[in-house]
Write a structure and sequence with these properties.
mainly beta; four-stranded antiparallel beta sheet; 28 strands; 57% strand; globular; YVTN_b-propeller_repeat
Length: 303
């Protein structure tokens, strides 16, 4: 998952279809699928580069990352990474891929379009996200290690691990508040709020069953959490860190993405091949979009 820059009120969404070996490209002005992009085997997650020119998709079944050129919706490069790549995150200088079967993160240099370093982390890394701003003098990357109940923190300049912290049981996906000072991490039936400077859990927020994805609105007012275990999305008000709404969506919602105008949340429903579009002002599902088989990941980019 990635943080995009402010934009006009229209956007473009990419959805990975795990069992179809494809990515659905949704025009979020019309909320219709505009194109279907063929990928490698088992596309699982996707992230957009900060310059908005490319999207990186990781293919869990053939251990690759692929580069999609946004203007043409075509794949321009395939890069070999580690075993069972599970998530992808981007920064200004690097692209990071968690390899859950290797306990590593592959570091890709976008200019060279190849892996330039491999970072050893905890057991079964799944999520990876980079702070939107420097913390002190450093930009930091957070990696959730689901089987060791930890987060590995690395310096995003030299790509070395600087700390390992407790995160709660089974940490999965990570999102940062706009100022980069707080990290929101999905764990077993909770979201852990972690102070990035203190590197401690400050609060645990009870959400739905088996939460996976978490996304924060660009206006920094709310966090949206996809709960795979009970087919809902929880809405957390950030000023109080309390759940203010629970929204029924499709089957097994996992990853959630937010439009840059903070008007809509898109939830990928892994169990029914759809994306639920939630209107943020009243937390109502306003449309369900049919995509490919097993919608596993989603990223939104401005046109």
């Amino acid at each position: 998952m990635t943080v995009c820059r402010p934009s006009p009120s229209f956007h473009f969404a990419y959805v990975t279809n795990f069992d179809d070996d494809s990515v659905s490209a949704i025009d979020t002005r019309t909320k219709k699928v505009k194109a279907t992009i063929k990928t490698g085997r088992g596309p699982f997650e996707i992230a957009v580069t900060p310059d908005r020119k490319y999207a990186y998709v990781v293919n869990k079944r053939d251990n690759t990352a692929q580069v999609i050129k946004r203007k043409t919706n075509t794949i321009i490069r395939t890069i070999r990474v580690g075993n069972a790549p599970s998530d992808v995150g981007t920064s200004r200088n690097f692209v990071y891929v968690t390899n859950s079967a290797d306990n590593t993160v592959s570091v890709i240099c976008p200019k060279k379009q190849r892996v330039v370093k491999t970072i050893r982390v905890g057991k079964r890394p799944v999520g990876v996200t980079v702070t939107p701003k420097k913390i002190g003098l450093r930009t930091l990357g957070f990696v959730s290690n689901i089987d060791s109940n930890t987060i590995s923190i690395f310096d995003a300049k030299n790509n070395k691990v600087v700390d390992t912290i407790k995160a709660g049981v089974g940490p999965d996906q990570i999102a940062f508040a706009k100022n980069g000072k707080l990290a929101y991490v999905t764990t077993k039936n909770n979201v852990s709020v972690i102070g990035v400077r203190s590197r401690r859990i400050l609060k645990r927020i009870r959400v739905g069953r088996s939460p996976v994805g978490v996304a924060i609105t660009p206006d920094n007012k709310f966090a949206y959490v996809g709960n795979e275990g009970d087919n809902t999305v929880s809405v957390i008000k950030l000023i109080s860190n309390k759940v203010i709404a629970t929204i029924p969506v499709g089957i097994k919602p996992g990853i959630v993405a937010i439009t840059q105008d903070s008007k809509y949340a898109y939830a990928a429903n892994f169990g029914e091949d759809t994306v639920s579009v939630i209107r943020i002002r009243d937390n109502k599902v306003v449309k369900t979009i049919k995509v490919g088989n097993k919608a596993s990941g989603i990223a939104i980019i401005p046109l």
